[in-house]
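Work Package 4 report. The design task specified in the project plan requires that, given a folded chain encoded as structure tokens, an amino acid be chosen for each position. We show below one input record used in the internal validation round.
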């Protein structure tokens, strides 16, 4: 009778512990939350200074068919914000100025990119963000919303029970 080596025992114990604790085998969905996945309407907030990027976003959303455009942030399930990092925001009196260490500041947008972010309308909390290479108003290499569409595709694959073993 052959004695099992440590790695074989370790793997066996890890697999047994995994199933005994009841961890799901399904792959973890992408960074999309249920709030984002269930949303039907978006309001586009363009803070890039380029009207063409708003029109590009509207056209891509229309072709995709995933969201309907809302007339105002109050009527939207999500706000889709376009941002290239060049905006300036006023901070109301009595509020803290956001800093990188405070947890309130958003990460910087690299030069030559546009951030595409999904925000909760009431709180302004960022629920998802990606970026795409742009040159001013021109979208480089693909479509502006490719990363967002990929995130939804990954989320749906995860919901269908795609396993780690696939």
């Amino acid at each position: 009778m052959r004695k099992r080596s440590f790695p074989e025992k370790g793997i066996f114990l890890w697999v047994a512990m995994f199933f005994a604790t009841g961890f799901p085998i399904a792959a973890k969905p992408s960074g999309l939350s249920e709030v984002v996945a269930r949303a039907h309407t978006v309001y586009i907030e363009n803070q890039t200074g380029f009207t063409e990027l708003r029109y590009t976003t509207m056209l891509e959303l229309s072709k995709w068919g995933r969201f309907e455009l809302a007339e105002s942030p109050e009527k939207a399930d999500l706000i889709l914000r376009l941002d290239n990092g060049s905006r300036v925001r006023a901070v109301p009196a009595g509020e803290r100025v956001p800093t990188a260490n405070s947890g309130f500041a958003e990460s910087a947008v690299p030069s030559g990119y546009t951030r595409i972010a999904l925000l909760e309308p009431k709180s302004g909390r960022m629920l998802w963000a990606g970026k795409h290479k742009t040159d001013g108003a021109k979208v480089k290499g693909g479509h502006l919303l490719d990363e967002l569409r990929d995130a939804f595709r990954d989320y749906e694959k995860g919901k269908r029970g795609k396993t780690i073993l696939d």
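The beta strands are 41-46, 68-69, 78-83, 113-119, 126-135, 138-139. Validation will be extended to a larger panel in the next phase.
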